[in-house]
Amino acid sequence: TFPTDFERHHDSAVDTPWSLADPREVRAAFRDYLDGLMLAARSGFDGLIFTEHAQASYDMSANPSLTAAALAYATESEGLDVAIYPAGRSLGKTREPVRVAEEYAAIDTVSGGRLMAGFPVGLPYDACLNNGIPPIELRPRFDENLALILREWSEDTPFAWNGSYSQLPSVNIWPRPQQRPRPPVWLTGIGNPATMQMALDQDFGFNYLSWFGLKTTGPRIFDRFWELVDRHGSPRNPYRLGLSQVVGVAGTDAEAVRMFRPHVEYLFNKGPGAIRSETLAIPGTIGLQGLQALMRDPTDMGIAEKLRTIGFDELVDMGSVIVGSPRTVLDRLVEVVRRFRIGNLHAMLQFGSMPRQLAMDNIGLFASEVLPKLRGVWQDEQWDHHWWPERLGGRPRDVTTGAAAEGAAR
């Protein structure tokens, strides 16, 4: 844990002094992180989701393939049928797209076909400051790297690649993914219409985070997404959309507030709130469509500018976090997923400065008292889930044809 005044003197990414860290605490944090994910797998969760943030003190996950590989092996060894979902390898920053394709293919192989492949464009500070990518290259590099990876997974014979950022005489990865022609692909974004449109055009899932306050951002981001779905001529299948939501569950509402308040404030004040806003919006990193959307209405970013100093009560009021008894949490989550047609809820149950036991209790209570009652939210509409591993009940489409027609399950 950092000093109480950390956010007044330091940023949480790029240049955070390592001298503030205790290596023993860092080692324990990694073990607790993996133990929490394995507890979730043993407790009946459908999947395990984790992120990528390099040179960041608030989320030490420079390469989520490491976490994915560990979980793929451990869950397969224990017979735990859960999806393995690294929400990122940021493709806008990588100079090694072949390695990314190989790593994900290996993870899909070890897990027996349970990978969900997350590919965010990438945070500007990470791509441009940490990795030296020119800002104007961020989006086109992502586009090219993604196209290359998808081709690497689907083709059975070697091919040459002559792109703007990679020139490769022979591309022939070993192994190929178990899931054919490819694992489900998911994009995480903050509401850029171009990212949403790509998800629709290529039949990817789209994931959004609650951090900026769903009370403000939810109607804008999700209503925009479903309007694009309508224009695209696709059905409003809720399973094409995901939400990552910070959640704290305790016996009563009062107990939950008391237990989670300091850890929620620690997460937001010393984590995303302590990233300088100018490093998240470096000129040139946002394409024209996204820039136009921001200029028309900057409320897409919600309470982002306040996160360094914001308090618990406002975070709850704005929907950045949901905290309470099992009944309170369930009611609020059902309200959110129904209002915005969210078919994949990613509950963030291990966050901030939470001690190990509190995180484990949060995971366990959510699994026993909330999760079972959430499963049937969309059963009445009987949709197929096309963005989920087939081994786990997903119904993949023939993505090679680009088919968009779909109806309710029969």
SSE layout:
Blueprint lengths: L5 H4 L13 H20 L4 E4 L13 H14 L5 E4 L10 H15 L5 E2 L5 H7 L7 H17 L4 E4 L4 E5 L13 E4 L4 H9 L3 E5 L4 H19 L8 E9 L3 H18 L6 H4 L7 H9 L15 H6 L3 E4 L1 H15 L3 E5 L7 H19 L36
Parallel strand pairs: 1-2, 3-6, 6-7, 7-8, 8-9, 8-10
Antiparallel strand pairs: 4-5
Helix pairs in contact: 2-3, 2-14, 3-4, 4-6, 7-8, 13-14
What can you tell me about this protein's structure?
There is one protein chain. This protein has one domain: Luciferase-like domain (TIM Barrel, Alpha-Beta Barrel). The termini are far apart. The chain has helices at 6-9, 23-42, 64-77, 97-111, 124-130, 138-154, 193-201, 214-232, 253-270, 277-280, 288-296, 312-317, 326-340, 356-374; strands at 47-50, 83-86, 117-118, 159-162, 167-171, 185-188, 205-209, 241-249, 321-324, 344-348. Helix 2 (23-42) packs across helix 3 (64-77). The chain has 410 residues and is an alpha/beta fold. Helices cover 43% and strands 11% of the residues. The strands form three sheets. Strands 3, 6, 7, 8, 9 and 10 form a six-stranded parallel sheet that branches. Residues 399-410 have low confidence and may be disordered.
Number of helical segments with 4 or more residues = 14
User: Distance between termini?
Assistant: 52 Å
Q: What is the makeup of the main sheet? A: 6 strands, parallel
Count the E strands.
Answer: 10
Compute the number of structural domains.
1
Structural class: alpha/beta
What is the CATH fold-level name?
TIM Barrel
* Percentage of residues in helical conformation: 40-55%
- Large-scale geometry: globular
**Element order, helices and strands?**
HHEHEHEHHEEEHEHEHHHHEHEH
Estimate the mean pLDDT confidence: 92
CATH architecture: Alpha-Beta Barrel
| Unreliable parts | 399-410
Q: Roughly how many Å is the radius of gyration?
A: 20 Å
Report the CATH superfamily: Luciferase-like domain
The percent range for strand residues is 5-15%
